[in-house]
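Protocol step 6 of 9: fold each sequence in the batch and record its structure tokens directly after the sequence line. For illustration, a two-sequence batch is reproduced in full.

Sequence one:
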Amino acid sequence: MPLVRPDFPMIFDNSMRSAFVECPRKFYWEYMHHFKPRGESVHLHAGKAWAHALETTRRLYYEHGLPPLQCVATGLEALVSAYGNFTPPERGSGAAKSLDRLVEAFAYYWNAFPLDKDPAQPYRGKDGKPMVEFSFALPIDEKRLRHPVTDEPILYTGRADMIATYAGGVSIYDDKTTSALGAQWANQWNRRAQFTGYTWAAQAFGIPVTQVLIRGIAILKTEIKHADCITVRTPHHVTEWREQFIRDVQRAMDAWEEGYWDVNLADACSSFGGCMFVQPCMSNDPTPWLEGQFIRRVWNPLTREENLVENT
């Protein structure tokens, strides 16, 4: 039987917007009907554990003033606990995301960037508290972007790892794990909408962000490397991002109203390992493929969690 028409989202984040731009049909299946792979990606699982451990370490040091070694030890415990009993693949790039390799990378990280000597330090806002983590949910444009049913302003939400002072400026800060570093890795952040959106949100709160600092840790089978990349966000970049975001969500509303979701039929089908929806997308009746190969996990952009629901 055909899929029931879903409600239109009240909240968008960068992942949702990126999925729609990549392929509207992918966005429709992934974020409106909530079809997700049955198994969790090692990269997503390891990334969440890694981010949790770094945040735990920083909060203990910058918010509670504990000694660096104690903070790192507790952060390591958080890493092991968050990783849990997850079994990574034995081969491929995911093999480097085993718990053992993450523990080695965690020790490497704090040797390379000691808490008390790191040139990137949390920005302190008007309340004096260190901004180890920056979360927000803001209407992107209360006049132009309103929900087609409720007429409430559609919200844009996100979470940056930190707002930091670095090289004389205030930066959106983000940690990335990767399998390779170099010019190509660094250049990819210059136009990344994720960080431009975070800059817009920070400026909306009166935080004078003008740049983005991305810290990359390459976890390889035989070695671990690191690199910092800094890229600017000018007023032009922020204005351009906001206008494009509004246009993209308006197009998503148009598709929802019409009940037809365009399909890319280009590189999005095969790039970066291929789209997970290729098989149902090739079928005259995608519903059996979707309900047989996937489960439903609803992504909440505010809590950044997924909740399992039954297929209907």
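Sequence two, same batch, same settings:
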Amino acid sequence: WRQLHRHERSMRSHGTPLPVVINFPWGAQEFWGTEQQYIWYRGAGGPDEIECALFSLEEWCFSELQRGTPVDNLIKRIVDGNQCVAVLGIAVLLALHTNRVSDTVFPLVTSQALWWMDHQRMAQEMGGGMLNLAGFTKKSDLPHAQAIKALNERPARKQQLRWFAQLYVLNGTFVE
């Protein structure tokens, strides 16, 4: 993504890309991409291979939650060392799913850039329907379509990150 901005003239006309910087308890991290790359974890507009990997990562995270792995540990495991904003989408989804108020989730909740990207994700999902189900036309595609449909039906999909901020206010939880 950063290489495109350096080498492709049409991308350079959009200005210089800036990272989203998130200050996690384990240190500050830079993540690259816009709302377009953020929704790759939703199977929208990204390279097929990356979308597939992100779907698999999301499913693995939810299976780990069912095994009792703490959400803070999962978030750290998937974002630490990563640089793509798409993985932040999965981290946000995990936080919304668990309603976790913690030092690990707080930097996600307080990022204006993530609020914007997640708002755009919600608008696309509500306005465009299930775009990530497009292309499943053969009978042999049915198991894949059903798996994606199950991901789409998670209750956290109908929430936005900015709504989550109120849990911090109501709990009187402010992290410095």
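Proceed to step 7 once all outputs are recorded. Observation for sequence two: The chain has a mean pLDDT of 80.
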